[in-house]
Amino acid sequence: MMLFDEWLSVTVIAGVAIISPGPGFAVVVRNSLSYGREAGIATALGNALGDMAHVALNLLGIGLLIANSSGTLSTIRLLGALYLFWLGVKGVLSKPRLKNDFENMTKPTNRLRAFYDGFLATLSNPKVFIFVFALFSVIISTETPFYHKVMYGGWIGVLSLCWFTIVALFFTDTRFVNKFQDYRHWLERGTGLILIAFSISLLLS
Question: 3-state class of 101 per DSSP?
Fold first, then answer.
């Protein structure tokens, strides 16, 4: 019963954190608008693996070392901010496309790039690191078996993948695309500005 209560707490807290608007959401939206549905889902997969990587760092004890090193944490914050800023600039520079210009959106290289965008944006986000560290330090008991903690990490990845896949599906839905096709580049520019704002907030935090 205790393990079920713990799992439920992890599900609720992690779920709320995942669906809260953040860099991961903005990156999925941007790549879905720029490169299509498969790229959006690839970004969602990258986000999910990035979340699980943070869990793995904490379970291996690396999280504690990073948390106790202000220099390392500051470096991660700087790298994360620069990466988000770069993605944001790319979004701001988006140009209008022809309605039937989908050839460049379906290239395998775009899907691979989208995956790395999601993975690196999440992995280099110190706020995700701090959240996972707090979750596993406060919510999860020290008596919880290690393999259960591994399962929690996998479950967080599943929650992340499901949510961001839904986001990618929505922003590439035919009805949405047909309605906002003429304004797609403005939406991309908007998400670019949001990513730049996130990068600045990381530097100031």
Answer: coil
Q: What are the structure tokens assigned to 64, written together?
A: 């504690």
Angle at 10 between CA 6 and CA 66, to 5 degrees: 110
The angle formed by the CA atoms of residues 190, 43 and 41, to the nearest 5 degrees, is 105
CA–CA dist 89, 83 (Å, integer): 10
pLDDT tens digits, residue range 81-117?
Answer: 787 788 788 777 777 665 555 445 556 668 889 999 9
Contact between 7 and 14 under an 8 Å Cβ cutoff? The reply is no
Q: Number of C-alpha atoms within 13 angstroms, CB side, residue 95?
A: 3
Q: Alpha helices of 93-183 — where are they, by DSSP H?
A: 108-123, 126-134, 146-171, 174-180
Residue 59 CA to residue 49 CA, distance in Å, equals: 15
The separation between CA 123 and the C-alpha centre of its own chain, rounded to angstroms, equals: 8
Report pTM. Answer: 0.82
